[in-house]
Structures are given as C-alpha cells and as structure tokens.
UniProtKB/TrEMBL annotation:
Posttranslational modification: During the catalytic reaction, a sulfide is transferred from Cys-222 to a reaction intermediate, generating a dehydroalanine residue.
Protein name listed in UniProt: Thiamine thiazole synthase, chloroplastic
Entries under Pfam families matching the protein: Thi4
Keywords: Chloroplast, Iron, Metal-binding, NAD, Plastid, Thiamine biosynthesis, Transferase
Sequence similarity: Belongs to the THI4 family.
Signal peptide region: none
Length: 357
C-alpha cells in the first residue's frame, strides 16, 4: 500500500525529472549529451529502462490507419444495440452509478453467472464521488470500510480510525475501470429510469428512456420509453433531487410504501451505521441502498464520508445474491475465496429488515 509520503516523493521526482529534461532541450535535439545524464530511478527502475515501456511509434511523423466513417457508426451502433437486446431481460438492474451503485455492481459482478445492467442518468457515472465535501478533492473513509479499498487497490493515507484517499476520483475511476472490464456488466449512461415495472405487487424491472428525452417530455410530443425486465432491481438513486431518490418516491406515489420522510440533519457517526443497517429489500423485487436509504428512513445525512456508500453497496449485492438464490454473506452460505473474511463482516447485517410499509 503506497503511503501519502511515498506518493509525494514520487511526484517530486517526476517534477524534477521533467524540469531537468525541459531545460536540456533545444529544438528537437538534446542540448546536453545523453552520456552526461545520471540515471534517475523511480520505484527501483531507471528512467531509461522505463522508456522502453513507452509506445513504440514516431511522434514526428505520426499517421493513423485509414477507416471509413460508416465503419465507426456501425461498430458503435451494433455493439450498443446488442447490449440493449441482451439486457432487455437481465438478472439485476442497478439504478444509479454513484459510489453505492458501483460498489454493489462490483460485488455482484464477481459471480460470472449474473448479468448486471447499470442505468445512470448522467453522462458521467460516479455521482458525488468525484470530489469530497465542498468541492474538495480528498475522500475520507472510516474504518473498517478501508478493507474494500484494499481489495480494489486504491492507495490511501492511513489514520487511526479512518483513511484518506488523496482524490475522490481515484476511488471512482479505479472501481469503474475494474467493474466495466467484466463481461457480465453493462453501463447504460445518459439513460434515465423513468418508472418501475410492477407485476403482482412485485418490482419486475425498470422503464427507461434517454436522459435528455426525460428532461424534455414537456417540450416535445409523445416520446414513449423502453423497458428492462429484471429479477432484482437495486435502487441507488441517492438523496432527493431532480433525479434523486426516484425509486422510493415512485413506490410512495403508487402506494407500495407509506412515506418518504427525507434525510435528517447531519450526524456522521449515526448516519453511516444506519445506512448500512437499513440497506434492505424494501418491497418484493427491489433493494434500496446508499443515500436513498436515508431518504426513505429519515436517517441523518452523512456528509463527506463515503464508507457507508461502499459497504451499503456490498450489502445490497449480497441481498441480491440471496434473492437470486446464490450463496451470500447474509445467510452464511457464501464460500470463502472470492472475498476476504473481513468483508463478510462488513456485508453482514445485525438487523436486516425486509418489510414493505
């Protein structure tokens, strides 16, 4: 695990190296003979040795391979339509690709037999996890949720009871890169979940549309939606807003739950525990996770700490596994190997509730 001090030293070394290189360049030639340079090292490898890892092409006369514009259009269209066909009927739809939704999908994707569609209304997934609080960069994660960071390989600065990631985007970009590389996951960004599919008092999927269409229903004529059927829907739409808490707000509007009181004022110590504890199957076929839990239960807001988002997402994944009949950490049937033993504790629930109001 790289420490903050190590990262700072590395950054200083790169800065000095670039400064040295810039001062020695004159036009396209080195002003100082290469033999006069002392080999600098980073993490035990010389700069010269690392140069061998750089792309092997000539930047002074670079030329791309030819392609037809129609080929580009066909490749994008064919692959996207194939994904839409594949996920028209899928195992799990995760609505909302914030930190809770991404963590849930990552945990679920460990099982290659489960197909997962992630629906995100924004062009850029990640929700509020691209920054810390008040547009600051650092992300604070309270222990023991740092074990999830260890698994996905996110470096941090360790403190007594919490850890600090130097930039929230490091977490978000890391988990997305690992998650989206898996063949059983498809992210549909710029797509909004406009409604739920309800069959026999059970959530059976989501109604989808392009996000820009959803925002312009009042300015255009009829623009009917599409659908995704699913065995389980995980709602991780975040706190209230134009597209926030849409899952539980829709449940209330159709009478499947009695109220959505909204989150209470900030109390980090009680908020994070409550969000994880109350992550649950809220009505048959639908699991609620992340800040949407605070909205439906009236929990305090947690502010700029993110551990509950990660662990709530993990728990939601194991609730989905349980709903699908797969081994999971909640009933003790999960076989060790794919997860660290500590994560089983993180994903478990002392007070699991599964009740519709």
């Amino acid at each position: 695990m790289a420490s903050l001090a190590a990262a700072t030293t590395s950054a200083a070394l790169v800065k000095n190296t670039l400064a040295s290189s810039a001062s020695s360049l004159s036009g396209s030639r080195l002003a100082t003979p290469a033999s006069s340079f002392k080999p600098l090292t980073t993490r035990g490898h010389s700069i010269v040795a690392q140069a061998a890892l750089y792309p092997n092409y000539d930047l002074s006369s670079f030329k791309f391979e030819p392609i037809r514009e129609s080929t580009v259009a066909r490749e994008m269209t064919r692959r996207y339509m194939t994904d839409m066909i594949t996920h028209a009927d899928t195992d799990v739809v995760v609505v909302g690709a914030g930190s809770a939704g991404l963590s849930c999908a990552y945990e679920l994707s460990k099982n290659p037999n489960i197909n997962i569609a992630i629906v995100e209304q924004s062009v850029s997934p990640g929700g509020g996890a691209w920054l810390g609080g008040q547009l600051f960069s650092a992300m604070v994660v309270r222990k023991p949720a740092h074990l999830f960071l260890d698994e996905i390989g996110v470096p941090y600065d360790e403190k007594d009871t919490y850890v600090v990631i130097k930039h929230a985007a490091l977490f978000t970009s890391t988990i997305m890169s690992k998650l989206l590389a898996r063949p059983n996951v498809k992210l549909f960004n710029a797509v909004a979940a406009e409604d739920l599919i309800i069959k026999e008092n059970r959530v059976a999927g989501v109604v989808t549309n392009w996000a820009l269409v959803s925002l312009n229903h009042d300015t255009q004529s009829c623009m009917d939606p599409n659908v995704m059927e699913a065995k389980v829907v995980v709602s991780s739409c975040g706190h209230d807003g134009p597209f926030g808490a849409t899952g539980v707000k829709r449940l209330k509007s159709i009478g499947m739950i009695s109220e959505v009181p909204g989150m209470k004022a900030l109390d980090m110590n009680s908020a994070e525990d409550a969000i994880v504890r109350n992550t649950r199957v809220v009505v048959p076929g639908m699991i609620v996770t992340g800040m949407e839990v605070a909205e439906i239960d009236g929990c305090p807001r947690m502010g700029p700490t993110f551990g509950a988002m990660m662990v709530s997402g993990q728990k939601a994944a194991h609730l989905a596994l349980k709903e699908l009949g797969f081994p999971n950490a909640l009933d003790g049937s999960y076989k060790l190997g794919a997860m660290h033993p500590e994560e089983l504790v993180l994903a478990s629930a002392d007070d699991e509730t599964s009740a519709a109001a």
